[in-house]
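Translate structure to sequence.
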């Protein structure tokens, strides 16, 4: 009897487990059946696309160079007696930088002066003789040959005076050259010669170098491709020159600070460097405090022009497809998400400058784009006034390469 009860209990245990399993499955399926009901469309954050005037800039590398530079060399030889300037100081044009021993040149000047006086005396005697002979030849008191000789001597004496005057002028110039002066205003560097040094006329080694640093030049390099794009944009009216003059230029110094003075673009080279494919441009800047020194590396922000109807959108609203092309998602009037292929020119601050693909009034998705796809429905939340998506003014360092 006990064995029969045991067998029945053993058969009952599997049946009970199967019943409990089926009961659990039925309870879990009930909520799943109800989940298939359609929910509300997902919310996305959008900004309304606007077209506004914007000044476009480009950042170019550059180096500073002197406005004028003069290497000071002696024009006569001799011993340097004095060096009456302070190295690194400000120099005025005509200021004496070196004094060469003038004694031999003073003597040469005095000798030339005496030679001129002798030539003038000889000329006076020859003039008087020629005048007397002119009267005597009329009365046949002297021969024609004697008169011709007197006339020739007079002319020779005149030529001798001219030669003596030229010699005196040469001696005077050489005497002046013993005072080596600066040809320009500027700042002088270190002296390569000291008192007692022997120098020669027009020697290869410069005594010192004077550089005018106010104003100062900044030489910039721009690729020929960038230059062509800029010219096309100006020609087709996408860009306008502000004021019609030369573009303004601002500088970012090596320490990251912005130079307080703005400059103007002076000119662009007429040839392209065959090694780099770049064109050199030159800008001029005021430099009253000598902050800019020759040879400094700087970054120049050049105003390309004014884009009258620039479309700037937050960078969060521009994505890339599998082929790397920039795209954006917009929400139409009926709430449908549509994908647009974009042509982006460049980054300006925290925004992209869009050439094609968006129109003023479009609602561009900047948040929640991962929750929707092309053709789906979406609810919009306007984020145009949020600080994170506000327009960023263009300025130094804001321009970046294009992404299209």
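Result:
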């Amino acid at each position: 009897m006990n064995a029969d009860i045991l067998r029945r209990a053993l058969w009952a245990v599997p049946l009970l487990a199967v019943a409990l399993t089926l009961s659990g499955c039925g309870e879990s399926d009930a909520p799943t059946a109800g989940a298939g009901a359609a929910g509300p469309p997902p919310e996305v954050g959008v900004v309304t696309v606007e077209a506004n005037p914007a000044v476009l800039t480009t950042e170019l590398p550059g180096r500073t160079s002197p406005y004028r530079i003069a290497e000071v060399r002696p024009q006569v030889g001799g011993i340097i007696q004095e060096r009456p300037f302070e190295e690194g100081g400000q120099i005025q044009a005509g200021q004496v930088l070196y004094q060469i021993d003038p004694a031999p040149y003073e003597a040469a000047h005095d000798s030339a002066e005496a030679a001129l006086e002798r030539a003038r005396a000889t000329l006076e005697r020859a003039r008087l003789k020629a005048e007397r002979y002119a009267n005597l030849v009329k009365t046949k008191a002297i021969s024609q040959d004697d008169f011709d000789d007197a006339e020739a001597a007079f002319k020779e004496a005149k030529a001798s005076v001219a030669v003596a005057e030229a010699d005196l002028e040469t001696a005077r110039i050489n005497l002046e050259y013993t005072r080596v002066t600066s040809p320009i205003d500027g700042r002088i560097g270190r002296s390569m010669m000291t008192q007692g040094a022997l120098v020669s006329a027009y020697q290869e080694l410069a005594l010192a170098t004077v550089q005018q640093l106010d104003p100062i030049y900044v030489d910039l390099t721009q690729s020929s491709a960038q230059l062509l794009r800029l010219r096309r944009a100006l020609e087709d009216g996408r860009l306008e020159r502000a004021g019609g003059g030369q573009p303004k230029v601002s500088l970012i110094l090596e320490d990251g600070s912005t130079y307080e003075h703005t400059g103007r673009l002076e000119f662009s080279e007429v040839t392209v460097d065959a090694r780099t494919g770049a064109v050199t441009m030159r800008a001029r800047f005021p430099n009253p405090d000598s902050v800019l020194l020759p040879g400094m590396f700087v970054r120049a922000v050049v105003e390309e022009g004014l884009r009258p109807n620039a479309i700037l959108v937050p960078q969060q609203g521009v994505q890339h497809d599998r082929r790397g092309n920039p795209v954006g998602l917009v929400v139409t009037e009926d709430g449908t998400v549509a994908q647009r292929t974009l042509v982006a020119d460049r980054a300006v601050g925290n925004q992209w400058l869009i050439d094609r693909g968006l129109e003023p009034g479009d609602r561009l998705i900047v948040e929640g784009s991962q929750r929707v796809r092309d053709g789906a429905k979406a609810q919009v939340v306007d984020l145009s006034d949020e600080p994170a998506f506000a327009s960023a003014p263009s300025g130094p360092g804001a321009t970046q390469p294009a992404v299209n």
